[in-house]
Amino acid sequence: MNGAQAMLEWLAGSGIRYLFGNPGSSELPLMDALVGEQRLQYILGLQEIPVMAIADGYAQASGGPAVVNLHIACGLGNAMGMLYNAAKSGAPLLLTAGQHDQSFLLTEPILYSNLVDLARPYVKWAYEIRRLEDLVRAVRRAVKVALAPPSGPVFLSLPMDVLKAEGEIDLGGSTRVDPRLRPSREAVERAAEMLRGAGNPVFIAGDAVARGDAHRELARLAEFLGAPVYQQTVSGTCNFPSSHPLSLGPLPRVQKVVRKALDEADLLFSVGADLMTMSLPAEVEPVPPGLPIIHLHLDPWEIGKNYPARLGILGDPGETLRELLQELQHRLPPEKQKEAGIRAERIRRMKEERESALRERARKGRDLIPIPPLALMETIADALPPDGVVVDETISSGRGLQTFLRSEDPHSFYGMRGGGIGWGIPASLGIKVALPGRPVVGLIGDGSALYSIQGLWTAARYGLAVVWVICNNRGYRILKERTHALKGVSARTGTYVGMDLEQPGIDFISLSRALGVPAERCDTLGTFKHLFHQALDLGGPFLIDVQVEGNFED
Ligand SMILES: Cc1ncc(C[n+]2csc(CCOP(=O)(O)OP(=O)(O)O)c2C)c(N)n1
Fold first, then answer.
1. What digits encode the pLDDT tens for the residues 286-338?
2. Topology of domain 365-547, per CATH?
3. Structure pTM?
4. Which of 158, 93, 163 is nearest to 128 (CA)?
5. Pairing of strands 389-393, 311-314
6. Which region, left, alpha or beta, applies to residue 249 given φ > 0 means left and ψ of -120 to 50 means alpha?
7. Atom 22 in ligand 1: which residue has the minimum CA distance?
8. CB of 177 within 8 A of CB of 135?
9. Around Cβ 340, how many Cβ atoms within 10 Å?
10. Domain with CATH 3.40.50.970 in the chain
């Protein structure tokens, strides 16, 4: 066996079924070893942005690990933005890149760089394998580290001489670390005592809830205490079922809105959440000063990161919430249980009022041309099959989406945590590979789509039935809105430099068809509904270019 064959043998033997990549000459021993390999399918992306984001989507939706192979310095360089996104979402993935033969490195051959240094800021562990004897140990360790909580990408550089070297190789097994960490008895008792004393507790659910499959446990505790549940700002998954009567949806990245949501709380329970990712600084602090916080997370970095946690608990959300509920069931006196019931009823009514007000706003736009994005979001949410999976890179068009969506299970929604656009088209492909039985719909801004449009070809090549809805406002509306808010020259003149995608306009239909994906354009919600249903039934990839309103309200 040579190094490349040993690596594939180990991966296949550990149950890994896909290798996502884009090759170059330093990866050729690996490409050669893939010939005839039945257990591992190579999925080709036409540039490293799509490759990395496909792998990120796959890692998140499958639980990982995703395995990626890229081409040396510039291949890795192209992937950095999406590697950043994957690191932010804690995607368990093994990123590899070929390296030149080690005897050659000092001469600085073409495309050479120190790959470990390049990858290091965004991975949990980075290493260049120097000897064939170390290969299996390094791969096994890398996969273990990627999966162990807090999960995330790892990097291995694979010099060509190691991939080509031959020898006796003991493949051994693999190590998986059980992540279901339980907190101490004392921590559970203290948390129960704080929650018991609260008159107005508010919960924020983070991605660790969905990852740990703890919706049910969180719902039970929220019901028992009559606490509203918000999802963290910039959620990567569905952290709490949207139809639950205590679900008040995701917190927006707007400090003053978050502050309003938390102002009346007397206790904040952050369950597996990041407190809190914002886009721009603001004068208002989103968390009221002095608000007592219980912060539960599997990642110690997140606990008390920005706001002091009166009680920080390292633990698995599901395991901890189960114990906490048991403890509270012993402690909560009947009058407190009654108060919880009254609070729950108030929250349920508030949720209903908010939803019907938003539906009313959407309803007013249903017949307008161009389509107001809010009306489009309502239509999509209502037309989505119950087992549908939404991948969201709508940027400004998606406001209201999560209020309309009936996202029930952790896999029903995926959003971009990192903020590097170009993620949505390819991420939806990786999610489809991981969840082949579920309808996957990618909602993508026209600007974002163009960073990784080659991803469409991969869908056509491998028959991945994703439906993409391009929210086409012919520009970078979010940037226009934010420039406008500066109240400078743009706001006075209505001129926004570098934010229009017109003259020439971009023909998404030709672009999509050229890459092998059928596509149609529509201007009305009626046509959209028709096309959307057809696309969902097609059994192959499809792209709908929806012309939406590009102007924005002051
Ligand atoms: C890799 C990367 N480059 C640039 C940006 C800056 N950026 C943020 S949003 C945006 C425009 C998004 O346009 P579109 O997808 O059409 O959504 P819209 O704002 O029109 O809703 C840009 C360029 C970014 N976030 N990431």
1. 999 999 999 999 999 999 999 999 999 999 999 999 999 999 998 899 999 99
2. Rossmann fold (3.40.50)
3. 0.97
4. 158
5. unpaired
6. left
7. 476
8. no
9. 18
10. 3-164, 365-547
Considering the four listed CATH numbers 3.40.50.1950, 3.90.1150.10, 3.40.50.12780, 3.40.50.970, the one that applies to the domain covering 3-164 is 3.40.50.970
| pLDDT one-digit tens code per residue, 35-77 | 999 999 999 999 999 999 999 999 999 999 999 999 999 999 9
Task: Please give the structure tokens belonging to residue 205.
Answer: 């659910």
CB within 6 Å of ligand 1 — which residues?
81, 395-397, 419-422, 445-448, 473, 475-479
Task: For residue 419, give the 3-state DSSP assignment.
Answer: coil
CATH of 185-351, one of 4.10.480.10, 3.40.50.2000, 3.40.50.1220, 3.30.300.30: 3.40.50.1220
- Name residue 237's amino acid: T
Question: What is the rounded CA–CA span in Å between residue 262 and residue 178?
Answer: 35
Q: How far is the CA of 310 from the centre of ligand 1 (A)?
A: 37
**What's the 27 CA to ligand 1 centre distance in angstroms?**
33
**What is the rounded distance in angstroms from the CA atom of residue 230 to the CA atom of residue 59?**
25
Q: Which atom of ligand 1 is nearest to the CA of 373?
A: 21
Return the CA Rg of the chain.
24
Beta-carbon contacts of residue 217 (< 8 Å; ≥ 6 apart): 317, 318, 321, 322, 325
How many angstroms separate the CA atoms of 53 and 428, rounded? 9
From the CA of 472, give the closest atom in ligand 1. 16
